[in-house]
Amino acid sequence: MKKLLTVFLLLVALTALWACKDKDGAEPSIYALINGDIEGGSLSVELNSLELKDFEYQSDGQTVKAKGYALNEVLNQADIISGQNLLMITATDGVSAVIDESTAHLCYIMADGQKLNIKAPEHPAVVGIKDVKEFTVIAQEDIDIGIKIIENNSMESISYGNAKLWFFEPSGGQSVKFGNTANKYLPKKGDVGLDAIIDYQNNIVYGHNFDIVKTSQSGKLSWENGKISFEADGKSIPSIMGIAANVDTIIYDAYEIMRSELDKGNKVMFILPDGLSYGQVAHFQQHLNLLGGNYIKAASVNPAISNVALASIITGRSPFETGITERGVKKPNYDDIFDYALSKGLSARYIEGNSTLVATNIEPKLNLPDTNGFTDKNVYESAMAALGDNPDLLFVHFHGIDDVNHDFSPLSSQALDKILKIEEYIEDLMENFDGAVIIAPDHGSVGYADKDGSFKGKHGVFQPDDMFVPFYTFLKD
Ligand SMILES: [Zn+2]
Fold first, then answer.
1. How far is the CA of 83 from the centre of ligand 1 (A)?
2. Which end of the chain is more exposed for a tag (fewer CB within 10 A), N or C?
3. What is the whole-number distance in angstroms between the Cα of residue 442 and the centre of ligand 1?
4. Which pLDDT belongs to residue 9?
5. pLDDT class of 49 with cuts at 50, 70, 90
6. How far is Cα of residue 467 from the mean position of the Cα atoms in its chain?
7. Burial degree of 235 (CB within 10 A; 0-12, 13-18, 19+)
8. What Cα–Cα distance (Å) separates residue 188 from each residue in 95, 96, 169, 170, 405?
9. Distance 435 CA to ligand 1 centre (A)
10. Rounded to the nearest whole angstrom, what is the distance from the C-alpha of residue 123 to the centroid of ligand 1?
11. What is the pLDDT of residues 357-401, one digit of tens each?
12. How many angstroms separate the alpha carbon of residue 443 from the centre of ligand 1?
């Protein structure tokens, strides 16, 4: 029996030994994971390709000679974005040390099998992390790459490295040795949600995959190798790109309102004033009549461009779901509000500018520009004519505000004139219509100074001015 056990143990030991060797007998590769504020977001560095360095450290009063991979040489394999950084060294159990990245050359990675341990003889003891999971670069300068947070009139970008700190708390304060500082961090207990970073209840979270979660819940954020995921209300986003804070709704909620009004037997008119921003109606409020009040704050989709937003509005879905995430005329993955109306035996009319933006089963009525170069007057007249046919659903797309925003900037007098003209058209249409009316732009406009000094407008850049729009509903009781 003893003999059998010995043979068995020997086999186990041999198997373990073989597992550590490649077929050709070479040492297996060991990898160090770098993430945070580096190009590409994360990088796995094969340590075997680097040179082992000799160094010494003190142990029980004795000088010990050792070999390790110099941490700065490992980090040099990545393209670090900022010139000034912190470095967070995190163990698999979450225990972390944060040092100045410029002192990484004083730290060594020693491999123990597949485990990586840090020896940092010139740093405080907390840097001696055992069983390292990852190295996270944390930019100390403002960089462009990160999670964009827009709220009211402000926007900020939190770099991915800095965002990792949402999930940790300092423990024990700063320690110093030979002038080198270190801070110990431990993972926060419990879930980290939006309330850790945003003071508002109603927020919209946008994914890199173009999906969207609108939520009044704090939800759950998680860090995984440079990406931050979000989960709330049974929906999840694998990697978030931005957050719109403190918004009442999202533009494609218009779909559900249209549907429920049609279900109630009401006629529905949806009016899309392309490019009208929340900032514009607030700025021009004293000049406006119908459009100067009665609105709530809605967020657009990302990217905030016409065909992407339009596809979302007519389907009630995020761009991830519609499959329309960039310019180009395509059919959404889901039935649209026109399909819905027709499926209920209702009539639907769709009045567009001079080109198709999204492929729909119902043929849009296209309208050419008039002598001023705008399609709005013809769109208005086509809509009036359509009202004469008494359709159950009428969808009207005015393009002029966006055109003028692009050419003269959203707060220009030209933009105001155009808004006032379209407001007149809308008021006229509403006077000739008995039913529920929803007015919602597809996106707003961000003003900027062009190279020649002239003011222009743009959108699709995820800023408050292109993402926030006014949302109007005039429903029957
Ligand atoms: Zn547009």
1. 38
2. C
3. 5
4. 52
5. very high
6. 12
7. middle
8. 11, 12, 6, 9, 46
9. 25
10. 55
11. 999 999 999 999 999 999 999 999 999 999 999 999 999 999 999
12. 6
On whether the CB atoms of residues 3 and 106 are closer than 8 A, the answer is no
**Ligand 1 center to 155 CA (angstroms):** 22
Pick the closest to residue 317 from 230, 246, 232, 259 (CA basis): 259
The Å distance, Cα 455 to ligand 1 centre, comes to: 19
User: CB neighbours (10 Å) of residue 441?
Assistant: 31
Distance 422 CA to ligand 1 centre (A): 15
**One CATH from 3.40.50.2300, 3.90.420.10, 3.40.50.300, 3.40.250.10 for 28-146+158-187:** 3.90.420.10
In angstroms, rounded to a whole number, what is the distance separating the alpha carbons of residues 352 and 349? Answer: 10
What homologous superfamily does CATH list for 249-474?
Alkaline Phosphatase, subunit A (3.40.720.10)
CA of 468 to the centre of ligand 1 (A): 13
The whole-chain average pLDDT of the chain stands at: 94
How far does residue 401's CA lie from ligand 1's centre (Å)? 9
Question: Each residue of 271-287: pLDDT tens digit?
Answer: 999 999 999 999 999 99
The Å distance, Cα 375 to ligand 1 centre, comes to: 14
| pLDDT given for residue 201 in this prediction | 92
User: What's residue 127's pLDDT?
Assistant: 98
Rg of the chain over Cα atoms, rounded to whole angstroms, equals: 30
Which of 439, 68, 71, 149 lies closest to 289, judged by CA?
Answer: 439
Q: Could you tell me the distance, in angstroms and rounded to a whole number, from the CA of residue 268 to the centre of ligand 1? A: 21
pLDDT at 28: 83
CA 408 to ligand 1 center in whole angstroms: 16
